[in-house]
Amino acid sequence: MAKIREFLLKINLIFGHLLYRKFYLNPFGNDIRASRETYLGLHKDEQHRDYPEVNDIEAELGYSLDRDWFETLALHTQVVVKKNPLNYQHGRLLYAFLRDYIAKNNEREITILETGTSRGFSSLCMAKALSDANQAGKIITIDVLPHDQQFYWNCIDDHERKKSRREILEPWQDLLDRIVFIQGNTLEVVNRIAMNRVNFAFLDAQHEKNHVLREYNSIRNCQFPEDVVFFDDYTPQQFPGVVAAVDAIMEEGRHEFRKIRLSDYRGYVFARQK
């Protein structure tokens, strides 16, 4: 794992600044978006919402994230100012489904692929699952945003100073060794790195039909029976391209599918290869 991490970091250093220069220049804006009290209020409101379907899935699978740990991470990495209501329950779902996968598949080491790192919330939830299960493995997560560049992230940490993603995630240092952060276009990176097996994938990068299909096709031959793809943002009103792509994948008949709809703004699809 250390050799893979070193190799991927070298690729980032060579290509990152040249190809993705614009993402180093305040991609979320030049100023702090909201007061500290606003972020805390948004977090408090979301904590009081109930999600029976997520509760049922956790009860069915027998795994659930420690709620205090989960909410603390969410405050720093998911509570943002945006048009649609906050909903970061995919973290709970990723944790529960990954723990279930680990329990049912006796793998010495597993590889997890995530497209669309953002602030690192989902990666940390999956790293927590690996840690809690005492499972060897690595998470490869890809995003056009740099890992070590300081800027405002539209989150509560902005009130301390501009930070890099690495700095935002410092409180969870015990889990970061399980994660390889890569900057780049997801399609280019996935095709550039050699992965013989992708046990569990979380696809959440660009939300256009062709992009989702190309991401999926990049890993489909790296997955075996019982391996998982979890699709984010399966919501017709918001992301018809994701829905069209996932529906096309469903028609192939390679997977068992489970649709999860939490609101008009957030839906997911869990796919297990037959």
What does this entry look like structurally?
This protein has 274 residues and is of the alpha/beta class. It has a single domain (2-273), classed as 3-Layer(aba) Sandwich (Rossmann fold). The chain contains eleven helices and seven strands. Strands 3-2-1-4-5-7-6 form a seven-stranded mixed β-sheet, with helices on both faces. Strand 6 and strand 7 form a beta hairpin. The chain is globular.
How are the strands ordered across the major sheet? 3-2-1-4-5-7-6
Radius of gyration: 18 Å
Structural class, by secondary structure, is alpha/beta
Distance between the termini: 29 Å
What percent of the residues sit in helical stretches (DSSP H or I)? 40-55%
Strand content: 15-25%
* CATH domain class name: Alpha Beta
Q: Total number of β-strand segments?
A: 7
Q: What spatial form do the alpha-carbon principal axes imply? A: globular
Largest sheet: 7 strands, mixed
Residue stretches low in confidence (pLDDT < 50, at least 5 long) are none
The arrangement of helices and strands along the chain is: HHHHHEHEHHEHEHEHEE
Q: How many distinct helices?
A: 11
What name does CATH use for the topology? Rossmann fold
Do you know the CATH architecture? 3-Layer(aba) Sandwich
Mean pLDDT equals 92
Number of domains: 1
**CATH superfamily descriptor:** Vaccinia Virus protein VP39
